[in-house]
Inverse folding.
C-alpha cells in the first residue's frame, strides 16, 4: 500500500510529486501513455513561468519538473488510469494495462481540455499562431492582427487583453447573438482596436510555418471570405478532464471538482485535487503548480493525522 498516488503529469501533478517526495511519501505518479506532460507539451515558448528570465520551451519545462520530482524519489509510470475506487481507507487505481495500485491518498491532477474548432490547420499551427491563452501568448503579437473566436465573456476578455499588444483584434462569432455579459461586451467593443465580425464561422487556418490567414464562411448565405491575421485565439471554453471521478466526487456547476474552501480536499476523505481540474478561472502553469503544492501539503497532513 502506497501513501499517495498522483494522477497527471502537468505542472500540478509534478509539483505535487516534488512536495510529496520531499515529505518522504514515496509517491507514484501516473503520467498517461499518450498525453504525458500535459498541456505544456503542446506549446513552444513559455515566458511567464517564474525563474526563466529568457523563457523556456513548454516540453523542456515539463522535463525539468519531472527530473526534480524523480530526484526526490517519485516513481513515474507512463500509463493511463482507467478506473478509480476512492471510497474507504484504501484507494484502488486500475490502469488500462490491467495493473492495480493501492494507496492511502490520491492527488487527482488531470487538467482540462480546451475546446477545439476541429478545422484544418488548427492542430498543425498550434503554438505557431493558434492559441487558447491570451495571457500566455498575447505578448508575441505586438503590432500584429489577431482574431478571437467566441462570443462569451472569456472571448471578450481575451480580445480586450490582446488589444494591449495587437494593432487590430477581430472577434469572430457564428451568430449575431453574443453570450457575453453586457459589461464585458461593452468594454471590449468600445475599444477602437476591436472589431466584431458576426455570422462568420472559421473554416480553416492557413499558413506554412505560422498563421497568415483564416478562411471564413458566412453562416447566413454560405459566402466565403478570407481574413489576413497572424494569430487566432480560440475562446470557446474548456472541459475539466473529470470522467474518472464522475459520480464519485462533488462538482461545481462549471464542471470543476468541488473542494473545501481554499484547500484541495474533495468530498471524499483522502482524495485531493490540483490544477486546472479545479480551476475554471486562471488556468496557468504557475497556478496549477501552486495548487499541486497545496494538494501535497493537504495529503501529507491527512496522512499524518491518521
Ligand atoms: P495538464 O498540464 O493538462 O496535465 C494534466 C495531465 O493529466 C496530463 O499529463 C494528462 O495526460 C494527465 N491525464 C489525464 N487523464 C489521465 C488518465 N486517465 N491517466 C493518466 N494521466 C491522465 N500556461 C502558462 O502559464 N503559460 C503558457 O505559456 C501556457 N501556454 C499554453 C499553451 C497551450 C497550447 C495550452 C493548451 C495551455 C497553455 N498554458 C500555459 C496553460 C497551462 O498549460 C495549463 O494551465 C497547465 O498545464 C495546467 O496544468 P495541470 O497540471 O492542471 O494539467
Amino acid at each position: 500500500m502506497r501513501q499517495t498516488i498522483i494522477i497527471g503529469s502537468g505542472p500540478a501533478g509534478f509539483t505535487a510529486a516534488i512536495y510529496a517526495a520531499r515529505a518522504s511519501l514515496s509517491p507514484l505518479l501516473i503520467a498517461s501513455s499518450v498525453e504525458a506532460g500535459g498541456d505544456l507539451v503542446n506549446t513552444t515558448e513559455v515566458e511567464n513561468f517564474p525563474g526563466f528570465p529568457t523563457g523556456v520551451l513548454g516540453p523542456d519545462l515539463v522535463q525539468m519538473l519531472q527530473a526534480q520530482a524523480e530526484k526526490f524519489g517519485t516513481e513515474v509510470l507512463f500509463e493511463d488510469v482507467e478506473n478509480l475506487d476512492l471510497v474507504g481507507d484504501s484507494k484502488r487505481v486500475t490502469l488500462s494495462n490491467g495493473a492495480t495500485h493501492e494507496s492511502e491518498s490520491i492527488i487527482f491532477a488531470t487538467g482540462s481540455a480546451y475546446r477545439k474548432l476541429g478545422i484544418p490547420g488548427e492542430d498543425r499551427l498550434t503554438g505557431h499562431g493558434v492559441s487558447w491563452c491570451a495571457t500566455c501568448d498575447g505578448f508575441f503579437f505586438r503590432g500584429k492582427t489577431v482574431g478571437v473566436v467566441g462570443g462569451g465573456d472569456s472571448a471578450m476578455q481575451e480580445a480586450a487583453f490582446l488589444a494591449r499588444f495587437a494593432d487590430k483584434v477581430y472577434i469572430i462569432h457564428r451568430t449575431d447573438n453574443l453570450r457575453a455579459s453586457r459589461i464585458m461586451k461593452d468594454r471590449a467593443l468600445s475599444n477602437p482596436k476591436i472589431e466584431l465580425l458576426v455570422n462568420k464561422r472559421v473554416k480553416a487556418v492557413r499558413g506554412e510555418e505560422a498563421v497568415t490567414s483564416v478562411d471564413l464562411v458566412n453562416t447566413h448565405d454560405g459566402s466565403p471570405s478570407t481574413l489576413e491575421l497572424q494569430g487566432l485565439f480560440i475562446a470557446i471554453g474548456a472541459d475539466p478532464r473529470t470522467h474518472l471521478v464522475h459520480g464519485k466526487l462533488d462538482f461545481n456547476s462549471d464542471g470543476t471538482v468541488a473542494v473545501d474552501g481554499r484547500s484541495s480536499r474533495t468530498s471524499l476523505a483522502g482524495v485531493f485535487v490540483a490544477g486546472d481540474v479545479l480551476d475554471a478561472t486562471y488556468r496557468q502553469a504557475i497556478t496549477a503548480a501552486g495548487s499541486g503544492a497545496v494538494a501535497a501539503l493537504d495529503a501529507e497532513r491527512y496522512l499524518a493525522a491518521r
